[in-house]
Amino acid sequence: MTESETTLSPQRWVILLLLPALLALLAACGDEEEPAATETPAAAPTTPAPASVTFMAGFKPQANLPFVGAYVAQEKGFFREQGLTVKIEHSRTSGEEFRFLAAGEVQITTADAAVVLERRAGDPPVPLVAVALIGQTGQQGFAVLADSGIQTPKDWEGKTFGYKGSEPTPDYLAILDAEGVDRGKIQEVRVGFEPQILTEKKVDILAVFLSNEPDTLARLGYPVRTFDPADYGVPTLGLTYVTSESYLQQHPDIVQRFLKAVLKGIYYAKDNPDEAIDIVLKYAPDEQRDHQRFMFDTELAAALTGAAQQNGIGWMTAAQWQALYDQLEHYQALSGPLSDLSAAYSTQALQAVYKDGRLVWP
Known about the structure:
Blueprint: H1 3-6, H2 10-37, E1 51-57, H3 65-75, H4 78-81, E2 84-90, H5 96-103, E3 108-112, H6 113-120, E4 128-133, E5 140-145, E6 160-163, H7 170-179, E7 187-190, H8 196-199, E8 205-209, H9 213-219, E9 224-227, E10 239-244, H10 245-250, H11 252-271, H12 273-283, H13 289-303, H14 308-311, H15 318-330, H16 348-353, E11 354-355, E12 358-359
Parallel strand pairs: 1-2, 1-3, 6-7, 6-8
Antiparallel strand pairs: 3-10, 4-10, 5-8, 5-9, 11-12
Helix pairs in contact: 3-11, 3-12, 11-12, 12-13
């Protein structure tokens, strides 16, 4: 082997010395261009995971607004868009819906806000949680015949008052206190659920459901004047969507999706009332259309007041629940005090489905 074959020339030494630097520079250039070559497109919207829910309306099929929201959501596909398969049932006996809820056979139902507090304060307590307040004012009012001459609550003195249930309700007592009515001058009698007792003049004042019985009496030919406790500063709340504590803890996403769909149903019904009543009559074929429309219009008006004006249908506040609780406790309508009033309601789902007072859809 010659010397020229074993010894590198100065030019080759320079190339060998520079080669690592050149390779490093090329590698750096390649790394700098890599992100542009492999950029990931924006993720597509995810489809909600399928889930099955049983919703039990707390009474027979009719146009109570929370029922309407579920009927419309079913018929217009709003539940389906939320990945939900919903079975709609109706309570056949008083309190049945709560027993099924506790047993896990029903996931969501409806209840008057006062009933939620009464059940939670019961013995044993029922762990109900209201997730939306549809009725911003209460369902109950008081009716007198239009030609009775009774103009104000003060005129109730010397008259006979018919009440349902075991005793007069706190909102009745609150009106008496607010208007300075002498309760001792009113004869109070327990009556059944037929409003004709007023037309037969067996009572002068009758406790009624505002969205139902005034229209029934008018259709019988007896127009009435009604007294709404909310008009006298009485804190009342109406129907709510309700679930159990355990279901809300375990399935907050399903509750949120259900609530979004039924609220969408209520807004759709608000904008399309004739179609909404058509849908109601599919579930309640034996009911009178005009009466269902009266019920719907009355409850919709109540749903659009209060906290709903700024925040959307179904909204509720701690102040509303506190005022209702204080009244029920004042008139001894609860079996006992609630250790944690805030456990009776949750705005978690409402906060997720609304933004700036508008329902987020889909």
